[in-house]
Design brief:
Oligomer: single chain
Structural class: mainly alpha
Number of helices: 5
Shape: globular
Number of strands: 2
């Protein structure tokens, strides 16, 4: 096993990732619907951001993103060689309304 394969998010980063999840999950259902992400991004390329987010994170293609899928996505970002600092920067960017960034070479991406 390589040095990044077994990596898990630190408790602090896990909490930070879930905090952003909660900002998207405005109805508190523990899942993110496309309508919620479109509202979140408003007119800032909302549909495009939503499509990219769901392509990256909705691994079971259910049309919603569960907390587990959300955590798995950010764990795979960490395992693909990004640091928690990279993730924190990205979370901060999303929190300020910036576009969704597509991470390349993630291990759990759909075929």
């Amino acid at each position: 096993m390589g040095p990044t394969q077994g990596k898990e998010l630190s408790p602090q980063m896990r909490e930070r990732v879930l905090k952003l999840f909660a900002r998207f999950d405005v109805d508190g259902s523990k899942s993110i619907e496309k309508s919620e992400t479109i509202k979140y991004w408003k007119s800032n390329f909302a549909k495009l951001n939503t499509e990219e987010l769901f392509k990256s994170v909705d691994t079971d293609n259910s049309g919603t993103i569960s907390e587990e899928e959300w955590l798995n996505f950010w764990t795979s970002v960490l395992r693909s060689g990004h640091t928690e600092e990279d993730i924190a920067d990205e979370l901060e960017s999303i929190e300020s309304g910036s576009s969704w960034v597509k991470f390349e070479n993630l291990e759990n991406k759909k075929g």
